[in-house]
Amino acid sequence: MSEEAQRVQKVIAQAGLASRRGAEELIIKGRVQVNGQTITALGVKVEPTDTVTVDSIPLEGREKLVYYLLNKPRGVVTTNNDEKGRRTVLDILSDVNERVYPIGRLDYDTTGVLLLTNDGVIANQLMHPKSRVDKVYIAKVAGIATDDKLAPLKHGVVIKGRKTAPARVTIERIDKDKKTSMVRVILHEGRNHQVKNMLQKVGLPVEKLTREQYAFFDLTGLQSGEYRKLTSPEIKRLKAEDYKNYRRK
Fold first, then answer.
1. pTM for this one?
2. Which domains does the chain show, CATH number per domain?
3. Is the Cα torsion angle 216, 221, 225, 226 positive or negative in sign?
4. Rounded to an integer, what distance in angstroms lies between the CA atom of residue 238 and that of residue 57?
5. Which end of the chain, C or N, has fewer beta carbons within 10 A?
6. Which residues, at least 6 apart from 210, have a Cβ–Cβ distance to it below 8 Å?
7. What CA–CA distance (Å, rounded) separates 103 from 166?
8. 235 near 123, Cβ under 8 Å?
């Protein structure tokens, strides 16, 4: 083996077909071939001259990598298929020819920034906890928010037996007549219903939630339900290795 040889799962991930873990699943299931021979072992390495196929389709023959930014509306699920027959984010991108999938999730009734792509490497990097990519939310909550109430979120609170990472939380405005508040929450974790659960924990149940920013992407120029392709400079920046550079100061 030459110094250029790489594990098959890494080659598949670099081609953008799946994350490395997803590539391992493909191998285990017998869907990967090297020079025409099906492999199921994860330790197999290949040379640059070897032909790697998935489901008998060469990696270089796969569809081009594409990247989209969507302003997700309420009442839409963040999934490729929904067993309940609800509208999905892919229904909105119905004119996109490539088979894209969302990076992370937003709840059914949560709106805002959502990235979609068929680049498994980028998706995996952005969602990995070590990347610490900022997610910025604006939440309308029931109750009058105070610094004292929000203080526990800045240190982390225990939800379902696990402590959350410290969040940056600020009060945007308060409506004393309606007894509601607008709170900005910035965090890099991505647990299920995390923002709602955190605010519920401190006695401020969420009535409405919007993700205003993900990494360096925001909703500028996009109405609810609208989407656009990422620009070349955005894609180049997205592929940067140091995701900590995206953090808001």
1. 0.75
2. 6-61 (3.10.290.10), 67-130+217-246 (3.30.70.580), 134-214 (3.30.70.1560)
3. negative
4. 27
5. C
6. 110, 111, 112, 137, 138, 139
7. 22
8. no
Which residue in 142, 127, 137 sits closest to 180, CA to CA? 142
- Cα torsion 138, 144, 147, 149: sign: negative
Q: What whole-number distance in Å separates Cα of residue 50 and Cα of residue 240?
A: 28
Strand, coil or helix: 49:
coil
Per-residue tokens: 155: 């240190």
Backbone angles phi and psi of 211, in degrees to 5 = -90, 110
> Can you tell me the distance from the alpha carbon of 219 to that of 225, in angstroms, rounded to the nearest whole number?
11
Residue 107: active-site member: yes
Mean pLDDT, residues 38-59: 88
Out of 107, 109, 134, 218, pick the active-site residue.
107
Is 209 a residue whose pLDDT tops 90? yes
